[in-house]
Amino acid sequence: MNESSSADETRVLSRRSLFRAIGVATGGAMLLGLPKFLGGWASQAEAALKGSYASGNVALELEGQFAGLLSGVEGGNPFADIISEGVGPDMIQRKRSGQPRFEDILFDINMSQITKPLSGWITDTLTKGPVQKSGAIVYADFQNKEVKRMEFLGGVLVEVGTPVCEGASKDQAGLSLRITPQSTRFMGASGKPIQPVGPKAKSILSSNFRFNVQGLEQACKRIIKVEAIVARRLAPQTSIGQEKFKTAPGVLDCSLVSILLPEIDGGPFYAWFDDAVLKGKQGGERAGLLEWFDPTGKGVEASAQLGGLGIVRYALEPANIKSGSVVRVEMYCETMNLTIL
């Protein structure tokens, strides 16, 4: 019988913004031994060998191809559950290690760093179903040369999260992703550069966004904020950190879409809520589109296509002298697809 202990709980991976956006998740405990800092988090590599890696010199490989530079990564560590055996005549609880298990790999990547191998995996996962891929998390020194790698086999991309979009933000627009691997292993280094030489990546800020709901485009012209949206398609096997999720394996499940807008623009949304919820009219679902622009604000660099939006909440936010009267609108979402140009 598996021993239930606090050690099991501490292995459950948490996510800075990923799990806060998921209504069904209860939060997860900290990854065992991984330091957390106010306002952010440190990757395992940074915690173990602080100062040995340059910021951003961690890359993702998929099927032997460079898939992008990561802005943060954690997880993938092997571990075993503790199996309790019978109590001997000396009244000591005997124990042994169980079968090997592997933590999920969680990472952040700026949209400007995403290459075709990763964007194709994201699209296939969101539109077709779970797709297995093998790859590696590759760490480099300040000369951009590989110093170690963690390879994973049979990985399934189980979560895709968009960034929080807000006009005042200066953050790069990035995705939060989660991989469930069948197994992982730590390997030595090749000493080769971790990325091919190419043009400098474009800057895509999370503040350069536009959000629209079909038929309500005029009311969306001054959207203040769009919270992170998470799509989940769990792998068939149970992985550490998934035990509390209610989604069935293979089923696409999207989090709530939550937006803030001036109350003066909220009338059409309230009318939608009145029809769909208060009056109970069926068939009022709409499509949505979240777009990110280049620094000029003219060229679309990435977009999230949202399907089956249904309004479930219309609420006044606490009064704020600076922003004026603001309302929060929440919608369920049935499908999401991402396009990275």
Descriptive report:
By secondary structure, this protein is mainly beta. The protein has one domain. Strands 3, 4, 5, 8, 9, 10, 12, 13, 16 and 17 form a ten-stranded antiparallel β-sheet that branches. Strands 11, 14, 15, 18, 19, 20, 21 and 22 form an eight-stranded antiparallel β-sheet that branches. Strands 1-2 form a two-stranded antiparallel ribbon. The protein is globular, with a radius of gyration of 22 Å. The N and C termini lie far apart (50 Å).
Broad structural category: mainly beta
Number of distinct helices? 4
**Helix percentage:** under 10%
Number of domains: 1
- Average predicted local confidence, pLDDT: 81
Quaternary assembly: single chain
The main β sheet shows up as:
10 strands, antiparallel
Computed over alpha carbons, the radius of gyration is 22 Å
- Beta-strand portion reads 35-45%
Distance between the termini: 50 Å
Q: What is the string of helix and strand elements?
A: HEEHEEEEEEHEEEEEEEEEEHEEEE
| Morphology call | globular
Query: Unreliable stretches, pLDDT < 50, 5 or more residues?
Result: 1-55
Number of strands: 22
